[in-house]
């Protein structure tokens, strides 16, 4: 990286990292990256074993970790949980939103109720999380979202996923515009490839987590609320 790029980059402020939809994939790798940088962790998820493993990894890195098992579609539960975590940890440097629902149904079998259920997780929950975290966001904090090429190239047999990813990307653009006057920026990283469990793949969970981390350090005068990751 050039000296100019180093000067213009916006480093994350001090504060905890709130991960909504924490699990062993991209979100877990991103949490570990940021714990290694010294950020405390607040992890929201549904699997207690996955949460405990991530918490153990974070504590091994020497940071404080708080976990909460919560259904992200339960607006009241999410808001109260995030507020409690904010009071415990102080400021949030980053809110990362990771969840989406995968339902293998095409547009001729997908019902409106099922689509609404999926969108509630993959899109609506972002509102619950960010609105609850807003009082605790540090100046220069970030909001990031794991995006997908399904937003532009949906697989018809999992029609709701494409809707979720297109909608959440659109919402990130609006969040970024709304939060910018308060010193907070939002970004969606569109992963243009299929996630892989192969650690050597450019679309491994670790590689995508690194791309997300890099997107958080965009220069202030060239900030983009969507960053494509081509692998």
From TrEMBL:
InterPro entries in the record: NAD(P)-bd_dom_sf (IPR036291), SDR_fam (IPR002347)
Pfam families per record: adh_short (PF00106)
Keywords: Oxidoreductase
Domain of life: Bacteria
Database matches in CDD domains: SDR_c (cd05233)
Family, per entry: Belongs to the short-chain dehydrogenases/reductases (SDR) family.
Protein name: SDR family oxidoreductase
Lineage per the UniProt record: Bacteria, Bacillati, Actinomycetota, Actinomycetes, Propionibacteriales
């Amino acid at each position: 990286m050039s000296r100019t790029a180093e000067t213009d980059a916006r480093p994350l402020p001090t504060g905890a990292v709130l991960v909504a939809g924490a699990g062993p994939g991209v979100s877990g790798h991103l949490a570990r990256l940021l714990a290694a940088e010294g950020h405390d962790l607040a992890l929201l998820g549904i699997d207690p074993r996955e949460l405990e493993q991530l918490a153990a990894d974070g504590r091994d890195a020497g940071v404080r970790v708080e976990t909460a098992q919560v259904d992200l579609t339960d607006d009241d539960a999410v808001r109260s949980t995030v507020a409690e975590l904010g009071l415990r940890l102080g400021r949030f440097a980053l809110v990362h939103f990771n969840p989406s629902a995968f339902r293998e149904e095409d547009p001729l079998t997908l019902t409106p109720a099922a689509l609404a259920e999926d969108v509630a997780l993959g899109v609506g929950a972002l509102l619950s999380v960010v609105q609850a975290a807003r009082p605790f966001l540090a100046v220069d904090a970030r909001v990031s979202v794991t995006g997908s090429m399904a937003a532009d190239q949906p697989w018809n047999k999992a029609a709701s996923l494409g809707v979720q990813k297109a909608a959440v990307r659109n919402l990130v653009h609006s969040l970024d515009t709304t939060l910018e006057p308060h010193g907070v920026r939002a970004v969606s990283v569109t992963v243009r490839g299929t996630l892989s469990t192969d650690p050597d793949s450019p679309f491994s969970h670790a590689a995508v987590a690194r791309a997300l981390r890099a997107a958080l350090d965009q220069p202030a005068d060239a900030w983009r609320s969507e960053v494509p990751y081509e692998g």
